[in-house]
Design goal:
The complex is a heterodimer of chains A (142) and B (138). With 142 residues, chain A is α/β, with parallel strands linked by helices. Chain A contains seven helices and five strands. Chain A has a five-stranded parallel β-sheet with strand order 2-1-3-4-5, sandwiched between helices. The longest helix of chain A has 13 residues. Chain B contains seven helices and five strands. The longest helix of chain B has 13 residues. Chain B is globular. Classes of the chains: A alpha/beta (142), B alpha/beta (138). Chains A and B meet through α1, α2, β2 and α3 of A and α1, α2, β2, α3 and α4 of B.
């Protein structure tokens, strides 16, 4: 019998189980590392992924509390992801924050937000308190 | 968008660990080696994420006071949607690695590595399990 298998989860593990889960989609390792560090210290569970073919399925299957998607000019995948998240019955209610370093792209999503369904928009670089406030508005804390 | 298509065709590695530093160091290393990477700390939905994402390889960190990682391994091993995905089990504790190896029928695990990881060995192991070629130096 393995140590750890038959014991009850301890307090720390139980607390972690009920924490909110944020999934962040972005290509840049540095940005993802900073986001993980920041949100981890704020007691969120965090998944980070660069765009992979099945990001939509991953999100639909795991139902995170919040999705943060980074938009860049050269990539189609994040736009498709936003559209699918907005259209699919299983994900249309998931809160989504769109972030981008490009004010034009943010503008573009805003104009077509009937199609993309984002809940909040943040221009990068953003102030950490702005991000945390936006997250709290959408999903609260643990 | 040929660059994007190339990115979509890369192998996808799913890394599960409690330590934020470890997770993002793994991301940096593996993205540099042209893998797609998802990292997560343990959450109740990790198994479902994996079923949805169908990664090419899973790396799970095991610790003593952590039931979730063992349960996850068992679930991955049993479920028909996941039992063929290769798994690397890592731990800072050699004794835990030995225990996992002894119960490989229950917890699976294709390779076992003790942390701190020898990165070259890790990359060779990953290439071996995913079949991705070594990246050509630019």
């Amino acid at each position: 019998v393995l140590l750890g298998v038959h014991m009850q989860p301890d307090g720390a593990e139980l607390r972690q189980m009920v924490r909110k889960h944020i999934l962040i989609v972005n290509r840049e390792p540095e940005f993802l590392a900073l986001m993980r560090e920041l949100l981890h210290t704020r007691r969120y569970n965090v998944t980070t992924t660069n765009f992979v073919p099945r990001t939509f399925e991953q999100i639909a299957a795991s139902q995170p509390d919040l999705v943060i998607v980074d938009l860049s000019l050269r990539e189609e995948a994040p736009w498709n992801l936003l559209e699918r998240l907005h259209q699919a019955a299983t994900t249309e209610d998931l809160p989504v924050i769109v972030v981008s370093t490009s004010p034009d792209l943010i503008e573009q999503v805003l104009e077509e937000n009937g199609r993309f369904g984002a809940d909040r928009f943040l221009l990068r670089p953003f102030e950490v308190p702005d991000l945390l406030e936006t997250i709290e508005e959408l999903i609260g804390t643990d | 968008m040929s660059g994007e298509r190339e990115l979509m065709e890369r192998k996808h590695i799913f890394v599960i660990n409690h330590d934020p530093m470890f997770l993002e160091l793994m991301r940096e290393l593996l993205q540099m080696e042209r893998y797609n990477v998802t990292t997560t700390n343990f959450v109740p939905t990790t198994f479902r994420q994996i079923v949805g994402a169908r990664p090419d390889l899973i790396i799970v960190d095991i610790m003593v006071r952590d039931q979730a990682s063992w349960l996850l391994l068992e679930q991955l091993r049993r479920d028909t949607a996941t039992h063929q995905i290769p798994v690397i089990i890592v731990s800072t504790d050699p004794q835990l690695i030995r225990q996992a190896q002894q119960e490989v029928d229950r917890y699976g695990g294709d390779r076992f590595l003790v942390k701190p990881l020898d990165l070259e060995r890790l990359l060779v192991t990953i290439r071996d399990l995913t079949g991705q070629e070594q990246m050509t130096p630019c």
